[in-house]
Write a structure and sequence with these properties.
The complex is a heterodimer. Chain A is 69% helix and 0% strand. Chain A is mainly α. A two-stranded antiparallel ribbon of chain B has the order 1-2. The chains are: A mainly alpha, B mainly alpha. The interface between A and B is large, with 37 and 66 residues. Bound molecules: iron/sulfur cluster (3 copies). One iron/sulfur cluster binds next to helix 14 of chain B.
Chain lengths: 48, 307
């Protein structure tokens, strides 16, 4: 069996992922998500 | 524990999983007003700043949260070309904690496929030489239709497109398109080739789900592909106790995602439904935090081989 990824790698990656998410929030990406989600998406429903 | 007792326990566990899936599906689509006939309305509150962890169209009349795959594309195809850090980071956190666990427990479209598979018909096993390459299609969906095309393509007016949502996603057609079209005559008048194409894909997906277990999850879903990338590093992992395992293959036969958990317990394809854990007669499989299959040194003999 292949060697498994040590737990400390996982624990090191979690703050990196949180930082990436926080960076997106800082860049204003939450507003883009909200603006898209509160209007009916014509592409999603197959109309546009 | 005797065989019957184990079977009863497995049935109870499967029932619990269905209840969690259904409960989550209802909870995350509980905006009743959206389902009332009249002008199309969808929820417009602050909860939509956050993505639900599974596939759930944000244009579903009942949706209270955002769809992670739709949101990623919305950021990429935005005029300012977002880098998607918010959603990618958010999904990476989930993946790093639980891997594809969400697929078996908190995804409405996963549940819908499972229920379709319950329709009593002969079931189909896709031959390995078709199944194996087809599994890579979901990575193509993720990297091409969700990342690359929405990020790089711009029309002559400078507008990007959510390629996966627009041309492929049957979730949007089922949860958003059909209810909205049924509830509003104005929308019915606007149907064109795109709706017909997406409707055809949805029908194919529904038909395939009756005969094949979760075909969309196995071959198409970019979100399943994304979470799958974290299976081997996630905090929660499957573990095989090699001292207990007798290589009987019951787990592989149980697995409807066609994983062989005693050989590849943290396969990208495993949705962590735990059915194999309940089926293993030797109780050799478990789900734990971190790695560490209990392994015998090479020279040691397994109990079954001693017997
Ligand atoms: S693979 Fe996609 S559709 Fe299937 S359960 Fe996972 S997130 Fe949902
Ligand atoms: S069912 Fe249990 S004992 Fe049998 S092969 Fe799988 S892990 Fe090993
Ligand atoms: S390997 Fe086990 S937990 Fe994973 S999908 Fe198959 S039955 Fe479910």
């Amino acid at each position: 069996m292949k060697r498994e990824v040590p737990l400390k790698v996982t624990i090191a990656l979690i703050p990196l992922a949180i930082a990436l998410c926080a960076f997106g929030i800082y860049r204003g990406e939450v507003a883009i998500v909200l603006a898209k989600a509160i209007n009916i998406c014509m592409e999603c429903i197959g109309l546009g | 524990m005797d065989k019957n007792e184990q079977k009863a326990k497995a049935k109870k566990a499967a029932g619990l999983r269905k209840a969690v899936q259904a409960g989550w599906g209802i909870l995350s689509n509980a905006y009743i007003k959206g389902f009332l006939p009249g002008d199309p309305v969808i929820y417009q509150g602050k909860l939509k700043q956050v993505c639900v962890p599974g596939m759930n169209c944000y244009s579903c009349p009942g949706a209270l949260g955002s769809c992670p795959i739709g949101s990623m594309q919305a950021i990429f195809d935005n005029r300012n070309r977002g880098i998607g850090a918010y959603v990618v980071g958010y999904l990476a956190v989930i993946g790093l904690f639980v891997g594809r666990f969400i697929c078996a427990w908190l995804c409405l479209f996963g549940l819908i496929q499972e229920l379709l598979y319950k329709i009593p018909t002969p079931k189909l096993t896709v031959p390995e030489k078709i199944d194996k390459p087809l599994r890579y299609l979901k990575y193509v969906m993720l990297f091409v239709m969700v990342f690359l095309l929405p990020f790089f393509y711009r029309s002559k007016y400078g507008v990007g497109e959510p390629f996966f949502c627009k041309y492929i996603c049957p979730v949007g057609t089922l949860e958003g398109g059909i209810p909205l079209v049924l509830l509003n005559s104005m929308m019915r008048g606007a149907l064109g080739w795109l709706f017909r194409w997406k409707f055809l894909l949805l029908l194919l997906c529904i038909a395939a789900s009756i005969f094949i277990y979760r075909p969309f999850c196995k071959y198409i879903c970019p979100l399943g592909a994304f979470y799958g990338l974290f299976q081997k590093v996630s905090l929660i992992r499957m573990r095989v106790d090699k001292e207990k395992c007798v290589d009987c293959g019951v787990c592989a036969k149980t697995c409807k995602m066609n994983v062989d958990p005693h050989k590849t317990p943290n396969s990208n394809e495993c949705i962590r439904c735990r059915e194999c854990i309940h089926a293993c007669p030797m109780h050799a499989l478990s789900m734990n935090i971190g790695p560490g299959p209990v392994q015998l040194p090479e020279q040691e003999v397994r109990p079954a081989e001693e017997a």
